[in-house]
Fold:
Amino acid sequence: MADCDLCGVGRPTLCPVKVHDPRVKTQYPAGTWRNLSEECLNSCYEANVSKIPSDAKKCDLCGTRDEAMYKVDVSVPTFGEPYSRAETRAICESCLAACEESYNRRQAEKEEGHHH
Ligand SMILES: [Zn+2]
Ligand SMILES: [Zn+2]
Structure:
C-alpha cells in the first residue's frame, strides 16, 4: 500500500511520475519519482488541457516555487461522510508535462492489456 502524493489516498498500485524537485536537485539531477493515484493522474492530465492558472506559490508535486502554477482538482479521502472532499492543488508546468507522459504511458499499458 502506498499513498498518493497529491490527495493522500492509499492504493496498492500508483502511477509513477518523474518530477524535478529543486530541493534534491544536486542528489538527483535526473529527477525523482512521485506516485499518483489514477484519479489524480487523470485530473493532472485534464489540468494540462484546461491550464487554469493558480496563484499558488509552490508546486504541490515537486516543490518548485515562484513559477507558473496550474489548478488541479483532486478528491481527498476523509473518514466521515461523504468520504471525500473536493480540493484544489497547484502544479507547475514541468510536472504537468511529467503527468501527461505518465498518463500516456498508462493508457498505452492498458491498450497492451486489452490485446493479451
Ligand atoms: Zn490522488
Ligand atoms: Zn512541479
